[in-house]
Design brief:
mainly alpha; single chain; two-stranded antiparallel ribbon
């Protein structure tokens, strides 16, 4: 296949989704036609991007497409560009995989809802907006797509109008999200004032090498804008409300897709446009924000009673891993962050779909009203366990390997810098993983195990059409864990190289030699060493995992008793109980994590009290965070 053929694939992939949204609206309530159009749109988009793996990831080419054939004139880019390198394609692939699985799941899942045609119109608009962001080579076009994505997501959050929390969640999403949108627009305007162009490649080449107040302010605003879209701390509370109210298939997009646009934007801003990651102050800022997001949100997850809200906080916690790893500014750190980004999309998408299946079968995701579903929903239970083991970093599932790379990257950064701070980052990462496992023990105990509640006697696994997308995501969780070298060689390492090397991207857009002639300052990065880590033997870890499971199973058999256990939850710490009412619990739910709760009671009480649910409070958090980031950048970047 020639370059002239596949250079059109990215723009066709984007436009197919937008055209699909238009056609879905035309067919209205005709379900078969609507599903056929939506399914065809997402599959075509996924297929077109998959066909680019060979030329972009393997052969190292960069796809350049000028909309309307408006190529640069007299050395300035005046048209909108679609430019795809290994980094763009990496995010494009994980987006289209999640979109396709979620779309096919939705065909059956939303049958109980009204206005199903409107659902797929918004769904495809959201998908097209997200894909447009990561494939666009124009800064303002990224902002436009960001707004398309945001308003579609707000509409989908409010889609289930029978849910009393839906409109409130959508309003919070819109108001707090507008802080990020405003920052992104202002940052774009300041960059244009400096460079007189909106093309990413040309901005990177001619942006002043010595930072001045204008460029620092532009950097801070763009960083905050994309950080808000990734739901980094302290913009995270709106994610929990959105996930709790939106259909589960939409939660897959908000968690696994929407947040990745923020991550992608942060990479482009820090590593590419401003090339600021050579500054230790920027590295520290990104690592600190990542660690806070990671730890605060995993502890908030332990505080939840709703399955989907719990998953929402875990989603932001896992984004914290990615931001922390990106902040290390090492080849190993970038590889770990990108690997965890795709793993997060897979296992979090799977977990949200299992939560949707529980809601579909029982009508609730409230932990106290569930229990014993493994007897009625064994297939869903197995898929939940795959997702839970993956997100908790249990070998041989995918979360283990990406987290292991992140652990090693933080430890090596500590050794390289001689800083105890980076050693503490390693500790935070490991502790967060332990708390993640504890949280999913709570969910498993509350939802799937224990005694079946009488009112759930009619529950059953969802239809085949909903299970197939879950099995695909579950299979990918296992595959990307068992065969990490395949992922590294063909996906992760090419994307990591694209993060560090801006010259090919610039020269492809502006012409050979443009970067050398115009690059305001050389890249502060050394070509990373991609010898990642050894000692990874999937078979050995699989054997170990089976041995540990067997030991746990034998211990549980030895401890079984036929007598009823009636342990009332500890009222002082009842907010953390495992789920079932005492008469349905095989162990005391209130005492499940009593020691941890008691030791951390002051911190947990403070954090729980701070999350008031009031929109004004969350707006204040966002405005304060914006001011702090701007002040920090002016203090340490100039």
């Amino acid at each position: 296949m020639t370059y002239d053929v596949y250079m059109h694939f990215p723009v066709i992939a984007i436009m197919t989704l937008f055209v699909g949204a238009f056609l879905v609206t035309l067919v209205g309530k005709r379900q078969a036609a609507r599903n056929a159009i939506a399914g065809a749109a997402v599959l075509v988009s996924l297929t077109l991007l998959a066909l680019l793996i060979k030329p972009v990831m393997v052969d190292g080419e960069i796809i350049m497409y000028w909309m309307g054939n408006w190529e640069p004139v007299e050395g300035y880019a005046i048209g909108i560009a679609i430019e795809v390198d290994a980094l763009s394609l990496f995010f494009g692939l994980l987006i289209t995989i999640a979109v396709a699985c979620s779309a096919f799941y939705s065909f059956q899942y939303i049958k109980q809802d009204d206005a199903r045609g409107s659902f797929f119109t918004l769904y495809l608009m959201l998908s097209g907006g997200v894909l447009g962001i990561v494939l666009s080579g124009d800064l303002f076009n990224i902002y436009v797509m960001l707004e398309v994505m945001t308003f579609a997501a707000v509409g989908l959050t409010a889609f289930r109008t029978w849910n009393p929390n839906a409109r409130e969640a959508a309003f919070k999403y819109l108001v707090v999200g507008s802080i990020g949108s405003t920052c992104a627009l202002l940052g774009t305007a300041l960059v244009y004032a400096q460079c007189h162009t909106l093309n990413l490649a040309q901005i990177s080449a001619i942006l002043p090498g010595e930072l001045n107040p204008t460029t620092v302010l532009a950097f801070a605003l763009l960083f905050t804008g994309f950080g808000c879209k990734s739901f980094m701390f302290p913009f995270h509370p709106i994610a929990a409300d959105a996930h709790g109210a939106a259909p589960s298939s939409v939660s897959v997009l908000i968690s696994g897709v929407f947040t990745k646009t923020g991550v992608y934007g942060i990479i482009r801003v820090c590593y590419f446009l401003f090339r600021s990651m050579g500054l230790s102050s920027v590295q520290i800022m990104l690592v600190v924000i990542g660690c806070i997001s990671m730890f605060v949100c995993v502890t908030m997850a332990l505080n939840q009673h709703d399955f989907k809200r719990l998953l929402a906080f875990h989603s932001i916690s896992q984004i914290g891993y990615i931001l922390t790893s990106l902040g290390l500014c090492t080849g190993l750190g970038i590889a770990g962050g990108l690997y965890h980004a795709i793993n997060h999309t897979l296992f979090k998408g799977l977990l949200f779909l299992t939560a949707g299946s529980v809601l579909y079968a029982t009508g609730t995701t409230y932990l106290e009203n569930l229990g014993g579903l493994a007897k009625k929903m064994p297939k869903t239970t197995a898929l939940f366990l795959i997702g839970a083991f993956s997100i908790s970093g249990i070998p041989p599932f995918n979360g283990f390997y990406s987290k292991w790379i992140i652990y090693q990257a933080t430890f090596e950064k500590a050794a390289e810098t001689g800083s105890i701070g980076y050693a503490l980052v390693t500790v935070v990462c490991v502790v967060t993983s332990v708390l993640t496992l504890a949280s999913f023990i709570k969910v498993g105990h509350s939802v799937f195990f224990g005694q079946l509640r009488p009112e759930l006697a009619e529950a059953k696994d969802p239809p085949l059409g909903m299970r197939i997308p879950m099995w695909i995501l579950g299979g990918l969780c296992v595959f990307t864990g068992l065969f990490p070298n395949v992922m590294l060689d063909y996906i992760i390492i090419p994307a990591t190289g694209a993060v560090f090397n801006a010259v090919p991207y610039i020269d492809t857009a502006m012409g050979e030699g443009y970067a050398a002639a115009h690059l305001a300052s050389t890249s502060p990065f050394v070509t990373p060493n991609y010898t990642l880590l050894g000692g990874w033997d999937p078979l050995a870890w699989l054997v170990l995992f089976v041995v540990v499971l067997a030991a746990v199973f034998l211990c549980s058999l030895a401890g079984r008793s036929n007598r009823d256990v009636n342990c009332a939850p500890d009222s002082k710490h009842a907010v953390f109980f495992g789920g079932e009412e005492a008469q349905y619990s095989h162990i005391s739910g209130g005492d499940l994590f009593w020691g941890f709760k008691h030791t951390m009671r002051r911190y947990l009480g403070f954090v729980s009290g701070a999350h008031t649910g009031v929109t004004n409070d969350y707006v204040l958090w966002g405005v304060t965070a914006t001011a702090v980031i701007i002040a920090y950048c002016f203090a340490f970047m100039l």
